[in-house]
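ok new one. same drill as before - structure tokens go in, u give me an amino acid for every spot. 271 of them this time. try not to just spam alanines like last time pls lmao
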């Protein structure tokens, strides 16, 4: 977000940050799942529906409950505001399109799944931009609206249920091994010796700095055992690797494919 947002209370300002970070995690996870669907379709693997099934399962578990939680927690307050009513009505219509795309994915062949998945990713990104940049600023600025109270108990919206699950599953949802020597062992050189073909790529340079790490963590959470992801960063992402290691150590092998100066490309492969 480029504009300064004045919240009616410090609590609402923190709630805004929490919602935006969860949105970033959802966007990152969706990008990872859709990237795998696109990769399989691009490789001509018509019989492999695993990526499609994983995307649908994630949508049923995370994306659709998130949309329903928004409709219960945030949207009624927006509908009550004259300046937000038309916006919320349009966003409710988008929820209908989103759930329709998820239903289409359930039985789609790999090519149609790639088309539906990409459409879902584009629509969801536009939808989140409306929430982050239009609806939420209106809500947190309104003196008669408490975003904290609106979100009370709505853990689906902030990812509370997912966070507690991840904390109990460190061995399967661990993150990059930032403690490894990047010059010796673990294949962390810049020679590109790993074959990154077929792995989804997340270009973090296009993600706003404030939500960049949350977006990457969301994408990494969606990487399946034996799978991987290529991260493109504007600099050597040592702080991100350190944060990821603190979250859950050792589940990813990290390989540098390119070391600047224009971009740093890293391959994350879940062990």
């Amino acid at each position: 977000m480029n504009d300064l947002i004045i919240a009616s209370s410090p609590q609402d300002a923190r709630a805004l940050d929490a919602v935006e970070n969860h949105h970033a995690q959802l966007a990152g996870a969706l990008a990872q799942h859709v990237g795998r669907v696109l990769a399989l379709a691009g490789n001509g693997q018509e019989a492999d529906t695993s990526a499609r099934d994983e995307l649908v399962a994630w949508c049923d578990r995370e994306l659709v409950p998130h949309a329903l939680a928004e409709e219960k927690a945030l949207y009624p307050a927006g509908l009550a505001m004259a300046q937000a009513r038309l916006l919320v009505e349009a966003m409710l219509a988008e929820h209908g399109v989103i759930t329709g795309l998820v239903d289409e994915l359930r039985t789609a062949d790999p090519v149609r799944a790639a088309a539906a998945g990409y459409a879902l990713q584009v629509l969801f990104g536009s939808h989140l931009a409306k929430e982050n940049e239009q609806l939420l600023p209106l809500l947190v600025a309104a003196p008669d609206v408490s975003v904290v109270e609106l979100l009370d108990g709505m853990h689906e919206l902030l990812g509370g249920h997912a966070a507690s699950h991840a904390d109990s599953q460190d061995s399967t949802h661990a993150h990059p091994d930032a403690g490894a020597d990047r010059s010796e062992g673990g294949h962390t050189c810049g020679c590109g010796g790993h074959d990154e073909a077929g792995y989804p790529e997340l270009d973090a340079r296009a993600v706003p700095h404030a939500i960049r790490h949350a977006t990457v963590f969301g994408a990494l959470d969606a990487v399946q055992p034996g799978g991987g992801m290529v991260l493109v960063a504007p600099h050597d992402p040592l702080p991100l690797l350190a944060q990821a290691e603190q979250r859950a150590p050792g589940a990813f092998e990290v390989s540098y494919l390119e070391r600047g100066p224009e971009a740093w490309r890293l391959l994350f492969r879940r062990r």
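The first strand starts at residue 201 and ends at 203. and btw Residues 233 and 264 are 5 Å apart (CA to CA).
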